[in-house]
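> @MW can you paste both from yesterday?
MW: sure, first one:
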Amino acid sequence: MRFTTIFATALLLRVSNAYGEYSGPWNYSWGFGTGTQGWTIHGSTGRWIGSDEPNGPVLPDGSPSGGGYGNLYLPDTTWAELDVSWMHLGGGIEATNKTNPFVFQADFYIPNLSPLTFGGSESSNQIYNAGIAAWRTDNKGPYVKGYSPGNEGIISGDNSWYGTSFRKSWIFTEASLPAVQTYDNWYSIQIDYSYTSPGFWAMSYYIPYDNAIGKAGWVTYVSGKEVNPGSAFTRLIVGSLGNSWTQAQWDNARIAFVPEPGSLAVLGTGVAGLLSLARSRRGHR
């Protein structure tokens, strides 16, 4: 639950892993242990969860979420955003300015609200239309979000130029159960935009249990699509990406990109080596 700045004595190293998930190092990480850490929350019900709620916020079923504290509670149509225009994120040239490839990742907690239901017999909570994105000023860009509570899945794309979306169903369904009855887990989703493989993007997710799609762990479920070389993404988003329905908590937002030489000079270049980021949470370790 801490804000971490990570940089090197030279350019940040990139890890090329053939569209596998990126695991670091990271330039910046926001653990939300001391507050929103520069992120702006939109919507009256979204808020930072502090140590006075050690078991997480009280949800519509009348019980705490179980997601711990030191994170952002972003239910339904609420979201948090961060101005990153100074990072010049993108995949090529925007106007006459070079943009920087990047990886953006965040963790989220889905509580179990059964026997409350939504959309039929499936579990009562999802991240429908909530996820992570890098937006241009016109609210377009690469995104990963939940979709269709009846399919318990993920949808992604890059709506700054490419109209096709890519879906993966049933990833939140445990292999031994016909429908999800127990969430109460932390997950991760990631956007790799031209970073490990220049000119392409990849979307990955982490599921902590064996599921209907495969074994527990990271999965890169779509990759190899060309990036939009003319886009500059100015904001990072976690939470609602539309008319969302969720009771999720969000944590450990992080980004990797290659800073311009001038930015490195501002950040400082006297730290030897790269620091590794250890995931930390209070109340849900």
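MW: second:
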Amino acid sequence: MRKVSIIIPHYKTWRWTAICINAFKKYGTLIDSEIIVCNNSPGHPSIKCLTDTELGNGVKIVDGRKDFHSHGMGYDIAFSHADGDWIFTSETDSFPIRHGWFEPYIIASVDHDLIGPMVPQSSGSYIHPAGAIVSRKVLDKAKEWRDAHKDWVFVPGAAVTLGVASWPYHVVMRDSSVPPDNEQMRKDVELWRDCGSWQEMRSFDHDSLQSYTTRTGITNFDPVPGVPKYIKIGYEAGQWLSYFAKSGGFRVMEAPCNIEWMPGLHGKKAAQSTVFDCFRHVWCGTVSNLPNDISASVRVFKLQQQENEFAKLEASVRRKILELEATWDKTATQ
């Protein structure tokens, strides 16, 4: 491992981004490294938690896309600016918690190409990107595969057209099957065609579809009734890359991960998880700042976790961020 590029998507959160960057700077990586933040909410003032404080010193900040703020796309945009031979992926609510945290990753990289926590999700179990590291050679090979399989495209608008918008999965269809008179679908196709390895949705030709359940362990999917060219399936950011690495013969390590559940929600809502006993992910931490996207009870719990971590920052940094937040709140109400 020559150099590691740490890539992090930011989205409308002042405090979690500050917590995350502060931890990476505080605990280091033991080897040459860089931090790249993709601002997935360009135009939103929350990025000032870095640009207007000392936390942003030495951090490369790049703009994401206003029309597509998925953290998977954020990873891909940040990756395009990275020069490390290994890429470490984090979210703003995930961060190292002690010195020496990166050593287990360095040791594991000798015998593995993708290292990270195997996490169960509603869409299937996979190596989750919050606390994962991947060799650039995996990403290079993934790009080759994607370039060779462009006929299957993720098209969210198709779910509405097909009358299956209530299904808990997205719709993937052949590019040639997109109705020429459906402008929204055409826009979706062009948007998702730009996706990279962390948000890939062009995952199906006939051969790979036949081996889908073997590769992924997911069995609860069906073709759309009466429309054999369409497939009902959903991927989270980083999920396809995890499956690709496994099915492509790369050496994948399921890093030890301890999941702590919220009180009364065991197996349903994680409070936090810890990889290698040294890298923490506070699930739904970022989204807790978006009140319409999370239940009230969970939001209260998550905001308290945020405050606990925020209190660990230097007083001068906390004070500056609070001042910035207050200024934005006054402006936002005018």
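> thanks! The chain has two domains: 3-142+245-332, 151-192+201-234.
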